[in-house]
Amino acid sequence: MSSPPSDRLLAEFDRSLLRTSRHTLDTESPLVRSGVRGLIGDEPLELPVPPVVEDEQVHVLHVDDDPRLGELTRDHFERIDDQFEVVTAASAVGALDHLDDERFDCVVSDYEMPNTNGLELLEIVRERYPDLPFILFTGKGSEAIASDAIAAGVTDYMQKELTADQYEVLANRVQNAVEQYRTQERFWNALSWYRHLLEQDIAGVFILQDGRFAYVNDRLAELFGHPKCQLVGSSPEDVAASTNDSLARLAELD
């Protein structure tokens, strides 16, 4: 079941959650291109966002070559919280087919599987879906495997004990990972929407950092009558003082 679209124009994002997103390494990101990567600091970040429809279900892909464990995990998850929808796959190939055909919020994978192990699957998933939560849930645990998993970008790592309590812990870790993932995705989707607005030059848009323009679009520069290179690094007060009608133009943007 989905909740109705939100009519909120501004959404607040915890910047600490965004530091772990691999989008921050993307040179095409507006935060990188505009030279304001420092925006991912400590204070909450507010961005205008389009209306969204939130999916209340948590879609989990469980990968294990033992079908009985797949069914056991699905049953435990759906008993713990009816928001969980678990799809099982018996191999890495099957898991990738599911990922190509459906949308998932988290992958929970065994380590030992035929042909492709859990770490190799993790590496493929990271190439295709950089931020998708991936939890390695394995009965073959070691410090070396845990270290390799962390290096490959695993979200979490747990050893199987196959107890009801263990599934409670696993379900909680999945929920936490999905919450962070959805926050990151909502941020980057909003930023993509925001970049589209910038590139359309429909309105004058600017980003202030420490009281100075960190970014201005072409439309704002046109309204002020100054080149963008002169506006970036200046304060609104400095710019307003340099042109008689700049204050009036700035007021039109409010």
Question: Summed up, what is this model?
Answer:
The protein is built from 11 helices and 9 strands. It has 254 residues and is of the alpha/beta class.
Order of helices and strands: EHHEEHEHEHEHEHEEHHHH
CATH class of the largest domain: Alpha Beta
Describe the global form: elongated
Q: List the total number of helices.
A: 11
CATH superfamily of the largest domain: Response regulator
Please give the domain count. 2
CATH topology of the largest domain: Rossmann fold
Number of strands: 9
Q: Span from first to last CA?
A: 38 Å
Give the uncertain stretches in residue-range form: 1-8, 27-40
Counting helices, strands and paired strands, the structural category is: alpha/beta
* Rg estimate, integer Å: 23 Å
Spatial arrangement of strands, main beta sheet: 4-3-5-6-7
Helix content: 40-55%
What composes the largest sheet?
Answer: 5 strands, parallel
- Mean pLDDT over the residues: 78
In the CATH hierarchy, what is the architecture of the largest domain at level 2? 3-Layer(aba) Sandwich
Question: What percentage of amino acids are in beta strands?
Answer: 15-25%
